[in-house]
Write a structure and sequence with these properties.
This protein is of the alpha/beta class. The chain has helices at residues 27-41, 45-53, 57-68, 72-85, 105-118, 132-135, 140-145, 147-151, 166-182, 197-203, 217-223, 226-229, 244-259, 284-301, 303-330, 332-346, 352-365, and strands at 6-7, 22-23, 93-99, 123-128, 155-158, 187-193, 208-213, 234-237, 272-275. Helix 3 crosses helix 4 (72-85). Bound molecules: guanosine-5'-triphosphate and magnesium ion. Residues 105-106, 142 line the site of magnesium ion (MG).
Length: 366
Amino acid sequence: MSEERTSRPEWADDGKMFATSYVKGNDRAHLAKENRSIKRKERSVEEYVAGVLNHDRTILAQAITLIESNAAKHTEKAQRILHELLPYVGRSIRIGITGVPGAGKSTFIEAFGQFLCEKGHRVAVLAVDPSSSITGGSILGDKTRMEHLARHPRAFIRPSPSGGTLGGVHRKTRETMLLCEAAGYDIILVETVGVGQSEVAVRGMVDFFLLLALTGAGDELQGMKKGMMELVDAIVINKADGDNKKKAEVAKEEYNQILHYLRHATKGWETKAYTCSSLYGEGIEQIWEVIEKFVQTTKQSGVFEERRREQMKDWLHAMIKDYLHNRFFHHPVVQQQLPAIEEDVMAGKQPVTMAAEQLIRLYEER
Ligand SMILES: Nc1nc2c(ncn2[C@@H]2O[C@H](COP(=O)(O)OP(=O)(O)OP(=O)(O)O)[C@@H](O)[C@H]2O)c(=O)[nH]1
Ligand SMILES: [Mg+2]
């Protein structure tokens, strides 16, 4: 065999959904095929925009791939697409879901997502998984856990973008969210695993933030940071079924007692605890009622709009910081001088502030 290299098959969407690969055969045949595939994928900005607005899931997925690409050529095109779609974004309820590994996030989203689809909503599920930016990530496990939802014609599931910095992952998720809205998804669910940094980021991109918790709350409550509870709009004790049902009710009361003394995440909204069983679909409807009430209340008070406006401003600032950070650390002068200055600082030969100022001056003078 002349070619042993393997690559992903054409039909593997953006190459993240399937773990399949094939061995290239006859050289010329595969070259022709690749050319065709590139041509096929090289859509114009207009084609992407029209496709997304027409709810074409294949084109939506391809547009997201452009957003996720780190190639300058793709970024530029993606930004033009986003610009065209701006008038069509924002008409959704954005819901963040967090919880420790095993809390049942995927199971909850499977049940909640199906419930919403059956009510006539169109649901997009996105994930912010900080680990996937390091390990490359895989939604394979989640795809099987969200088996039914993944097949639902009104649902769209997209794994966490892999590769790049945490800031990059957040930007991509936000922009993907906007694309999904333009494609008619009126409920956006953003899942994140509970590890601090990402929760703050997800709070910054959603309207309603939900924490899935477990019983055995005694320990968990102790370990759970007050900061976390002040970040969310509802705490849902999951797995309230079987032997666990009573314990879940007790945990709910305990949480409510503590919540009473904490600051609420959203002005004019009291964060409370609830129970549900994602596995058996119990309590799912009530959670939707809570969210509807939240949207109604905050829209009436203006808090809903105000938060979204603030989020846009924060996003802008975060982007600028990210950009400057990258420019600075990739600058040849900084790269050349930094090691020595680091050494000086670590050896106590130079105060940190002075060292920082010196480096920044070098960078600005370049
Ligand atoms: N009894 C019961 N089990 C549940 C419930 N929800 C989830 N589980 C189980 O808990 C385990 C973990 O659920 P997942 O949905 O994978 O949890 P997760 O939070 O997505 O976990 P990570 O993706 O690892 O962060 C699975 O074995 C589920 O079947 C529930 O309501 N009741
Ligand atoms: Mg999961």
